[in-house]
Amino acid sequence: MNEKPLRPDERLKEEFNRWAQAGEGEKMRQHHLNITEKTIRLMDLRPGERVLDLGCGSGWATRLLARLVGDGPEGFGQVVGVDVADEMIRQARAESKDFDNILYVWGSAQQIPWEENFFDKVLSVESFYYYADQDRALAELFRVMAPHARLFILINLYKDNEYSLQWVHKLKVPVHVRSKSEYVQLLKAHAFEDVQALRIPDETPTPDEYSGKWFKDAEELRDFKRIGALLLTARKPGVKSTSPTQVIY
Ligand SMILES: C[S@@+](CC[C@H](N)C(=O)[O-])C[C@H]1O[C@@H](n2cnc3c(N)ncnc32)[C@H](O)[C@@H]1O
């Protein structure tokens, strides 16, 4: 008998559980730290804010966020990390025992397990292009964001960085490939305001000898980093979302 094909989120869960077991969760910290730190600076986080880290992986960025919104004169801020891979969530929890303002929840961007109008800021690092239905993920983000909340989506795989396109065929799960302008249109179509797209170069030094598996040589890697990641930023308008169970007549 033929096995039933996995649903997109089940496939993502299996693949990223494998990554987690292979220790990729923490390795991603090295690859994404430089561009994520620059993004976090732009987020202008304040103590007391409520932040979502969507596709949080092993939680290293979640912990950076939690330090910035923790206890302060403006209250006690909280960070929620959500990931579709339960093994990533387990690792994130194990690494975050010293934090009392982080909660990790296993769940998908397709149905974010949180209430409406809650988060002041959202960060998503290197995750958005995996979401099977990006329209639905944006509708979910809109729902859980507070009025005037700000969204920061950072991705390394997009049409305008030609070196990133190699991953479309090398990754074991399907991905979306859109250009900077297509992403801007997509966010605007979901009623986000103040939509901007910035390039965030990775300024870590590149050794002269490249020994990794992705790039032809050090020159190519340097070029990929120089072009940089795409950061999409947007704001939810000053409206409240209603709960999906709430029927309005
Ligand atoms: C390349 S990793 C990046 C992880 C982390 N943000 C980092 O930079 O280290 C992509 C992450 O997105 C998660 N992910 C993929 N699809 C998802 C979805 N539909 N909902 C939530 N998380 C998802 C994966 O499980 C994985 O942990």
Structure classification:
alpha/beta
Number of distinct helices: 8
Separation of the first and last Cα atoms: 48 Å
In which range does the helix fraction lie?
Answer: 25-40%
Ligand list: S-adenosylmethionine
Compute the average pLDDT: 95
Low-confidence stretches: none
**What is the total tally of β strands?**
7
Q: How is the main sheet built? A: 7 strands, mixed
Element string (H = helix, E = strand): HHEHEHEEHEHHEHE
General description of the model:
The chain has helices spanning 8-21, 24-43, 60-69, 86-95, 134-144, 166-170, 180-189, 218-227, and strands spanning 50-54, 78-83, 102-106, 119-125, 145-155, 193-200, 229-235. It is α/β, with parallel strands linked by helices and 249 residues long. S-adenosylmethionine binds at residues 9, 12, 16, 28, 32, 55-57, 61, 82-85, 88, 108-110, 125-127, 130-131.
Outline of the structure:
This protein has helices at 8-21, 24-43, 60-69, 86-95, 134-144, 166-170, 180-189, 218-227, and strands spanning 50-54, 78-83, 102-106, 119-125, 145-155, 193-200, 229-235. The chain is an alpha/beta fold and 249 residues long.
